[in-house]
Amino acid sequence: xxxxxxxxxxxxxxxxxxxxxxxTTADVDRAAREYILSQDARPGFxxxxxxxxxxxxxxxxxxxxxxxxxxxxxxxGDIVSIDLGAVYRGFNGDTAATFACGEISEAAxxxxxxxxxxxxxxxxxxxxxxxxxxxxxAVSTYCEARGYGVxxxxxxxxxxxxxxEDPSIPNYGKPGRGLRLLPGMxxxxxxxxxxxxxxxxxxxxGWTVVTLDGGLAAHYEHTVAITPHGECEILTLPD
Length: 239
Ligand code: MG
What we know:
Layout: H1 2-17, H2 25-38, E1 42-43, E2 55-59, E3 62-64, E4 79-84, E5 86-88, E6 91-92, E7 95-100, H3 106-124, H4 132-144, E8 149-150, E9 156-158, E10 165-169, E11 186-189, E12 192-194, E13 200-202, E14 209-211, E15 217-219, E16 222-226, E17 232-234
Antiparallel strand pairs: 1-5, 2-4, 3-14, 4-7, 5-6, 8-12, 9-10, 9-11, 11-16, 12-15, 13-14, 16-17
Helix pairs in contact: 1-2, 3-4
Magnesium ion binds near residues 94, 157, 188, 190 and 221.
């Protein structure tokens, strides 16, 4: 898991470095795929559930599951959410972040900052003995107090031999409720936060999830382990 997650994090970094005005989302996807393959790993998202590419790349009002395309040219001011994973020796990493394409608006920057901060608030709760509701409420409390929306329809998840394992890890919940965290668990925590209303819909391509109101969305994700000492170890950190 450590190695799979390290490769995933380095791939995310490589993909993020490919985000610039004039690049296509296919260029960004290729940067991720080439790095993963160079590490004797394989892209965990490629062909999973029929997804056609190595990374999900979601621009502006797209929340998750955007399909990379050579026809989607990034422009100055876009925010670009990249979600990807690598499989190494049968284990999955899963990580995401939202990147700025050139200069972005103050509003877009604030949304990204808040989403990233909410992930770290959630990770503070990822210790043995806490419950899933502690994770979810950390995200929703932080983001909703700042006027943002928390997407309900998609969640974090267990991760291991499969990319998506039990349990589901919602970005909302009641403190002290839900499954208890135990040493040895590996989970993906991933707030998906909207500028305004959190309602979403799926485009006719069957994949891309967008905000219903057209507002911006941001997405950050780490895979973490609950250590034998009950602490949170972030696995998806780059070199
Ligand atoms: Mg995930």
